[in-house]
Design goal:
Layout: H1 21-38, E1 52-57, H2 63-74, E2 78-83, H3 95-103, E3 109-114, H4 119-127, E4 131-136, H5 142-156, E5 163-167, H6 174-185, E6 189-193, E7 209-212, H7 215-219, E8 224-227, H8 243-250, H9 254-257, E9 265-267, H10 280-284, H11 290-309
Parallel strand pairs: 1-2, 1-3, 3-4, 5-6, 5-8, 6-7, 8-9
Bound molecules: phosphoric acid mono(formamide)ester.
Length: 313
């Protein structure tokens, strides 16, 4: 594992505010080791033996929940799965009461997804336990950004001086926000792009982040181009004329990728709306690292669990 760094070790991973570049780099470095573990015939280490981790998901997920649960089990933790849809939340039980009940089962850490921004922070408040934010409202999805950063670094050897263009529904995207916070801390530039109605101007105040409504300008010089899911439920909010209009201008396809760096890669956090924000050719083509992102997600989540629950300094 990477040597300990000097700044105070954060107790939670809610967003990147209290995380130094050194600690974030240590998480990426340790993910290299975790990938090696995942390549062994026996994909298991004892690092979290004796600990109980609760995945508390109040919103649906495929990638994040399965990879966190597998990551915890690969590290020998006991895993308690809480899915709100099949729980007494449907009878009106509050977040506070739910977390206070679950904490009685000697939970050592929570992994939380919730539709409300700030809910992961509340879970830490109600439980007193370390919390990893697995996506809260529009606010943050830090392990997604870490696995995105890791995938770019894996491709190019470093994030220093690289540019990542992120196209789509930036306004409602916790993935865009977390990447805009994380990547500049690691030396990369971020260009956020979408129709003006889906591109909040305040994000331009973040260091290393620029905004444009022009997709060709966005991808020019980009080493990685990420398409964001166009949240179809937003169509009723007056943000877009039509899906087709959006796709005609902002779809990440090979024609748009011709304006990026020659070896540029295509990313998508998933789930995808094929042939809306991303063409099937781009999603499945030689530039695509979308399934690599999924594979890397498990290693990053192992590394985050290790860093928060085992690492000492
Ligand atoms: N990228 C992401 O968060 O996917 P899931 O919703 O499937 O977890």
């Amino acid at each position: 594992m990477t040597a300990a760094t000097k700044t105070a070790r954060p107790r939670n991973l809610l967003d990147f505010q209290e995380w130094s570049p050194e600690r974030l780099t240590a998480i990426l470095d340790n993910a290299d080791t975790m990938l090696q573990v995942l390549d062994r015939p026996v994909k298991k280490v004892p690092a979290l033996q004796g600990l109980t981790i609760c995945t508390a998901f109040f919103e649906n997920s495929t990638r994040t929940r399965t990879s966190f649960e597998l990551a915890a089990r690969r590290m020998s933790a006991d895993v308690m799965t809480f899915a709100a849809g099949a729980s007494s939340v449907s009878k009106g039980e509050s977040l506070r009461d739910t977390i206070e009940v679950l904490t009685q089962y000697k939970v050592d850490a929570y992994i939380v997804r919730h539709h409300a921004s700030g809910a992961a922070h509340l879970v830490h408040q109600y439980s007193g336990k370390p919390v990893i934010n697995a996506g809260d409202g529009r606010r943050a999805h830090p392990t997604q950004a870490l696995l995105d950063a890791y995938t770019v670094r894996q491709e190019f050897g470093s994030l220093e001086g690289k540019t990542v263009a992120i196209l789509g529904d930036v306004r409602h995207s916790r993935v865009a926000r977390s990447n805009a916070e994380l990547l500049p801390k690691l030396g990369a530039k971020v260009v956020l792009c979408g129709p003006a109605t889906l591109l909040p101007a305040d994000l331009a105040a973040l260091p290393g982040v620029t905004l444009t409504t022009d997709p060709v300008e966005a991808v020019r010089g980009a080493h990685a181009v990420m398409a964001l899911r166009l949240q179809k439920e937003r169509m009723t909010g007056g943000y877009l004329g039509s899906l087709q209009e959006y796709a005609d201008t902002y779809q990440v396809d090979e024609a748009l990728m011709q304006h990026a760096e020659s070896g540029a890669i295509v990313l998508h956090p998933g789930p995808m709306n094929r042939d809306v924000e991303i063409s099937t050719d781009a999603a499945d083509g030689p530039r695509s690292r979308i399934l690599k992102q999924v594979e890397n997600g498990q290693a990053i989540r192992m590394s985050v669990l290790y860093h928060l629950l085992v690492g000492r300094d």
